[in-house]
Every structure is written in structure tokens, then in C-alpha cells.
Write a structure and sequence with these properties.
Layout: E1 5-6, E2 10-11, E3 17-22, E4 27-32, E5 39-43, H1 44-55
Antiparallel strand pairs: 1-3, 2-3, 3-4, 4-5
Length: about 60
């Protein structure tokens, strides 16, 4: 987790909380709140694309 700056947690219904983070090298991170030591990582652009796609409804079939 060294060098990762975590945002405040985003929580859905039933306390499904996750956090987004970034580092100085251009990487983005996603973790379950409270488990930031276990995360997924990719580029900031990949994270931005995923967020845009979710907002556009491309993941609604997963709900």
C-alpha cells in the first residue's frame, strides 16, 4: 500500500463499500473498504474508462 492515496469509501446498500486510490506512477487501485492491502490495480485511464462505462449503464446487467 506504500504510495497509494485512497479516496473516501463509496458505500452501496448493505454496506458494500469500496475505495479508489492512485499513486504517483499513474496507477489506479480498487479495494474493499477495510481491506486496502488486497486490491486490483490498472492504469488511471482504465479506471476512468470503467467508471464512464458504469455511468453509461454498461454494467447494469450485473445488478
Amino acid at each position: 500500500m506504500k504510495g497509494i492515496t485512497w479516496e473516501e469509501a463509496f458505500c452501496g446498500e448493505g454496506n458494500n463499500c469500496f475505495r479508489l486510490g492512485t499513486d504517483a506512477e499513474g496507477n489506479a487501485y480498487i479495494a474493499v473498504a477495510g481491506r486496502e492491502d488486497v486490491y486490483l490495480t490498472d492504469s488511471r485511464e482504465a479506471l476512468a474508462t470503467m467508471i464512464r462505462d458504469i455511468k453509461a449503464g454498461k454494467a447494469d446487467h450485473l445488478l
